[in-house]
UniProtKB/TrEMBL annotation:
<protein>
    <submittedName>
        <fullName>Kinetochore-associated protein NSL1 homolog</fullName>
    </submittedName>
</protein>
<dbReference type="GO" id="GO:0000444">
    <property type="term" value="C:MIS12/MIND type complex"/>
</dbReference>
<dbReference type="InterPro" id="IPR013950">
    <property type="entry name" value="Mis14/Nsl1"/>
</dbReference>
<dbReference type="GO" id="GO:0000070">
    <property type="term" value="P:mitotic sister chromatid segregation"/>
</dbReference>
<dbReference type="Pfam" id="PF08641">
    <property type="entry name" value="Mis14"/>
</dbReference>
Length: 251
């Protein structure tokens, strides 16, 4: 039995008796299911060869395809993605239905919830009426003495600030002066300065200036000579001038 010789089911008046369906995917699923069952049945028949089994399965599939109409179209003319379109359309229908339900809930539910909200607010107001304060608040009185002290402090603050600035400036100048004096005291004196010091004060330079002991070796000999000269000058008594006799002046 060849698949090409299978006629399409039609009546004498030309009426088409093919099965009309809307989904090609459903036909494919059912065809696969029954084709698998038919294959099991043929496998149990040992007297049928394998080639005949394959021909029978192909004939069954082709016969089903030729005797169905998918949305008024033949099997070859029907698109393969028609099943996906049906699923999308079904999903759109469900989505539209949910949108309609949500819109209805938005319109009716606020009216249903409103009485309960009003009752809750009234209950809260009643509870607030039952509230009783356990502590009576009192007004705080200001202490006049403390107020005068704060006023005096506020008035004296600018003057104290200016005094603090002046003291800080004077401290800086005093610090600079002290640093200059410290540098002058630690300064090493030269030989000329030592000589002037001895002539002005007339005392031993070694006793008056202990810091000179740590001077340079070149200056120590000069200092030592100045000290010796000072000691000799203290012991030396200059001779008095001899007065002339009257007789000698007359002669």
């Amino acid at each position: 039995m060849e698949a090409a010789n299978l006629p399409i089911l039609q009546s004498e008046s030309g009426q088409d008796f093919r099965v009309k369906l809307k989904s090609k995917k459903i036909v494919v699923d059912q065809l696969t299911k029954y084709k698998h069952s038919l294959k099991k049945l043929l496998d149990s028949q040992s007297q049928i060869s394998e080639d005949d089994k394959e021909k029978l399965l192909a004939t069954f599939e082709q016969t089903v395809q030729e005797n169905v109409l998918i949305s008024g179209l033949s099997w070859e003319e029907a698109p393969d993605d028609e099943g996906n379109d049906d699923e999308c359309s079904a999903l759109d229908d469900v989505l539209d239905e949910k949108i309609v339900q949500t819109s209805a809930k938005r319109r009716f539910y606020p009216k249903k919830i409103l009485p309960y909200v009003v009752r809750a607010l009234k209950a809260e107001r009643k509870l607030m009426d039952f509230y009783v304060s356990m502590v009576n608040p009192e007004d705080m009185k200001k202490d006049p003495v403390q107020a005068d002290l704060m006023k005096n402090v506020s008035e004296a603050a600018p003057g104290m600030l200016s005094q603090a600035r002046t003291v800080s400036k004077s401290l800086r100048s005093l610090q600079q002066s002290a640093e200059g004096l410290y540098q002058a005291l630690n300064m090493e004196l030269s030989a000329e300065s030592l000589e002037v010091y001895r002539e002005v004060f007339g005392c031993s330079v070694q006793d008056s200036s202990p810091a000179l002991l740590s001077a340079a070796p070149g200056l120590r000999q000069t200092v030592r000579r100045a000290v010796v000269e000072a000691e000799y000058s203290d012991d030396y008594i200059p001779p008095r001038k001899r007065t002339a006799m009257p007789s000698e002046t007359d002669q």
